[in-house]
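Predict both folds.
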Amino acid sequence: MGAASESGKEPMISASALEKYGYCPLSWWLSRSKDDKGSPELAKGEKAHEDVATDLGGIVQDESQAKVFESVVLWFAIAATLISIIGVSFIVEVEVDIGMIMGAIALIWVLAACYFLYKAETMPKGISTLRYQRIILIFALVATVIGVLSVTLLSDFFHPEVAQILQAISLAWLVGACYFLYHSLKRFELAMFKRRKHKVRHGIAYIDSQKKKPKLFVSEKYRLSGRPDFVLLIEDEHIPVELKTGRIPRGPLFSHILQVATYCVLMEEEFGSPPSHGIIRYGQVENEIEYDESLKDMVLKKANEMRSFLISGGDVHRNHNKPGKCKHCSRRNICSEKLA
């Protein structure tokens, strides 16, 4: 069962293999055997992971579509306002206070800016806040322009019929804006529901999925690889998150810490700066694992131990005397050293 080095390089070690090795070296070694068929618990866990990946992918898609709809709403509203202004300026036969009309339109835009300001302040930190701030700025600028026009615009030419046509077009544009606003809010609410469900408060930079295999993170320097369940973007940090199904332990298990620490090493290699921590989730229980040099050294030490076994085809044994570990091990049925 020995493994030859690849093109003279040391064997590549995956984060999932490190997790198995951290649980029990013999369990990891047996997982490489063709006789290892897994277990119903593993299959159930894979399905649960895929369900989460689908929801997280839905968050990214819904927020992306909501952003598109918001942009359409903005430009529809601007176009409707401009057409309405032109239409009002064409009125000559009806005694109308152009300034009052312009002031009313400007007030509408100011109120819209206040609404988006409220949305920006109530958004979870790091989610779409900058986009709403840009919208507020545009709305405020349009309101200012309209306010200036209400004072300076003169209406001394064109016919009322032209104004009526332009007002009708303006109304149609506003109806279109309302349509897209509805869909934008609907997509946004769907995304927020999924965020609350999975306690995701920050941007999602990466999602692992069996259906759509994403990029494999690789460190040639340390000969490590892996795909975290997902990666959060918190300010400028890429924080790996590992989801664990099944029983919820009193605290994070060593093997799981080893796995998420490996992802932290990969994030550091990929993005040029180390994350402050990684996250392990057991159901709704979230554990932050501080990432530092000592944790990194432990990952590299365990990976080197594994390589020595792979290169030599070494004599790997169980490293614990805990019946509970053996009881929950998915390789128990093919293990010759299992505890009763």
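Second protein follows, with its predicted structure tokens after the sequence.
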Amino acid sequence: MSTTVIRPKKTFSLTDLREIWQYRELLYFFAWRDLKVRYKQTFVGIAWAIFQPFMAMVVFSVFFGGLARMPSDGVPYPIFVYTGLLFWQFFSSSLADVSNSLITNQSIVTKVYFPRLILPIAVIVTHLVDFFVAAVVLIGLMVYYGFTPHLAGLCIIPLLLLITFFAALGGGLFLASINVKYRDVRYILPYFLQMLLFVTPVIYPSSIAGAYSWILAINPLTGVIKGARATILGTEPVNWFLLGLSSLAVVILLVIGIVLFKQMERYFADII
């Protein structure tokens, strides 16, 4: 009797992409399962995807837009901040859940073979659904304030979503690999995301950073959020240099995340 031994490779190649495509139905299953589990036995169901950024928008509008008089580039502050929150919520929620994706699927990882990259990708796809659901509120805000969006610029939105997707995937793969061995990640990450929010131009325009604008430029979400406001709200011309810088940072982050993930993949089932 012959025995087939399946060993994960240490490097990422086109074979991995073909394998992910072969298991695309499993990817769909994981994404659909996560959606159902998250909103199972909830009173408002998937409306929670709207509730979180909406309540954050209300709080920020009261304290930063109302009391602190934070500038919003001539756009109603609720629309201004909610546009940033949409992409920030997509990134932060995806990053947090991807970092725990191997731990939460421990029973599957240790028993059945499938491309492990499917789990992180499925998590982000789930949050991408949340993004589109939450985007309905932005449309409602524009109608309420009588604000006309720049529809011609919406063609750049898929690019911005792609950059955010890979930023969450790259950072998530890095953290998920470490989290398998060191469970401190689950305690450190919420604090890290809280700090990262304040160095991302979500609640304020990047123009107020002044001499510290280079700190914001390092953050790949800066180019994404500025690009979203430029295309949808027309606050300024699209800064293609900053967007290119964000893309480069995401590529570097993704490469680091995939390399570490592939290096540690063979040990996941043993130490998880």
